[in-house]
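Annotators were shown the component list below and the corresponding predicted structure, then asked to write short factual statements about the assembly.
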Amino acid sequence: MDIEQLAKIFKALGHPTRIKIIEHLININTCVCGEIVDIFPYSQSTISQHLKLLKESGIVCGEVEGPKTYFCVDKTVLNTLKQYIETL
Amino acid sequence: MDIEQLAKIFKALGHPTRIKIIEHLININTCVCGEIVDIFPYSQSTISQHLKLLKESGIVCGEVEGPKTYFCVDKTVLNTLKQYIETL
DNA sequence: AATAATTATCGTCTATAGGCGATGAACGAT
DNA sequence: ATCGTTCATCGCCTATAGACGATAATTATT
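Structure shown to annotators:
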């Protein structure tokens, strides 16, 4: 994995809310934006922005289905991250 | 480990230069600021700033010895980080 | 005591992050 | 066709990041 890509993922994880989002996504496997908005004390636009960052880093992917978007963690990317950390 | 602390570490790793610094510190065990400055195409103040961020996150510690400061990776913190990643 | 070497900090600049409300776009249901 | 739902995006604001050169602070050496 590219070091730039790695830095992007770390950066994406570099915010408490985004870590919690990742943990939540892993726990319940897949999730819709509104559900996450309900959990956190932030506006819909703020959560959407966090999800966008996570998506851009590659650690999260989102599938549009009708009016909703289903977000989930990309296990492949997560595993690559785990492997990298192990080399440290 | 506190989630705020975790986010700080991820944030600290969220920059290509800082990832490379960490890798270098692990490879050669301990290192002085000037040596890192020689490796990267950045000024001494910029590298010093990166090292400060890494130190503040806890992933790196620095010991002052005379006019030099010896930086090294805190293995305990690194292991905690590894353990956390494994739980994801 | 003066100088050289090493690192940290300050001030400055531009760019990005992080929050918000308001609006836009896409879809389902009525 | 209209309306409600859901999400993304825009514009705005303030705070922080990231780079630099210049300067301060500390120490070893001469």
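Statements collected:
1. DSSP finds five helices and three strands in chain A.
2. Residues 7 and 77 of chain A are 13 Å apart (CA to CA).
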